[in-house]
Amino acid sequence: MALSFVSVKKPSPRLIDYVVFVGKRHPSRHGQPVSQPELLRVYPPQNHDDFALPSDVIFFCQPEGCYNTSSTSFVTDPRHSEGRSPQNIKMECFTFMLTDKESNTARFGVCLNFLRPIGRRKSNYIAEVTRRRIASFKSKLQQPILKIENNRIRSCDNLSDSSSSDDSLQGGCHHLDRPERPYTHTLTSICLVSRYQFCKKFQRCLQFLYTLIQKLHEGCKPRYSGRQTVWSVLTGAIESAEIPAVRKSVEEIDTWILRLLSIPAPVFGRTAIHAYLQPPDLAKPIIFALPDKHRFSLVDYPLHLPLSLLGIEKFIKVFFSLLLEQKIVLESSHHERLTTCVMSFTALCYPLQYLFTVIPLLPSSLKGAEQLLQAPSPYIIGIPRNFRDSRPSLQLPKDVLLVDLDTQEVRSFYVMSTYNSAVPLARSCH
Fold first, then answer.
1. Long-range contacts of range 34-38, CB-CB < 8 Å, 24 or more positions apart?
2. CA–CA dist 376, 105 (Å, integer)
3. HSE-up of 47 (CA within 13 Å, CB side)?
4. Could you read off the pLDDT of 208-243 as tens digits, one per residue?
5. Whole-prediction pTM value?
6. Contact 363, 292 (CB under 8 A)
7. Which structural domains are found in the chain, ordered by start?
8. Which tens digits make up the pLDDT trace of 126-185?
């Protein structure tokens, strides 16, 4: 049996282990739409002795890869439009899990994804338009105006017909072939890696950090032009800023992040940490506290979400599959919905503990990620909507229970037949 009673794990003295910036260091307005993400900046720059930052954290921050788009919101992008409500989503928060294979210790990453504007380079765009206009003009000059047949010029009637057709051709010269619409935004991520599941509270920290960076960036941008901006320094596009205002803004951001990393972790069932993101007269503090080790673990996310999405009957089927150690794959276009449901199913096993593989979000951009679905042991894994589309040859094992959280569809093969009769049916009260 892999379902055992909850064991006491060694706590970490740090509330937050790392703050990570992920994206593209030099995004191009005319480059590839999707590329591999890069690790742009890490706080602190050195690894901790008890926990080194995994190199594959970049794929979990951007599960579908680092892509460029011409839109300012996620909802209009084709990879994010399925299953979404018709509203502009400027940023997206979700949680993922990093598990150490040797110690079996789980770290949680809370990620904030947003679309960052790409720096304009008008000179390149104008040069491309001019080059295509000259090439189009030269091609039109090489076309013959009169057609000669048998060394004789055609009659005037034919000439008039040809002149009208030539006018139409020359009129088409005004419709020049323009370059494709350039990309204006690139996907960028800010992530907190911690031992503790303060999901909603860490999201508040990330949103405040993003607002702080954006305000300082906009404060320096109107006065100075060029590539030396706050975002260009934080993302590694330039090593250091020569403009004093930009350099001072980056130093303030570094100081704020280092103060955030210096917050200690609360003691289980004894202490509480009051963290002020702003001065006390401007905002209330964020309180970090942990229950006793032997009680129900901390749940800082909507535990009822899978029940409200699937309904009672389908929820019981999936939960029974989990207790009977079956393979479960959850699929959704919402990253936050996907990770929340996976963590909720495992948390509801209390006072037992699920000891098999738990991956709330398996990135589709991670090479060889589909091999984890072929594991012989039970698991519960969440995959994005485009995971199977990006791997046409992928075939899920026959003993997998596939749960679509967007359409509330539960597809099973012969797994459910072993215990389908054990699911209690609703009885009407008379």
1. 34/64, 34/65, 34/66, 34/67, 34/68, 35/65, 35/66, 35/67, 36/65, 36/66, 36/365, 37/61, 37/62, 37/65, 37/66, 37/187, 37/189, 37/365, 38/66
2. 22
3. 7
4. 999 999 999 888 765 444 567 888 889 888 877 778
5. 0.75
6. no
7. 18-74+88-121+182-264 (3.30.450), 304-412 (3.40.50.11500)
8. 555 566 667 776 666 665 544 444 444 344 444 444 444 444 434 444 444 444 567 778
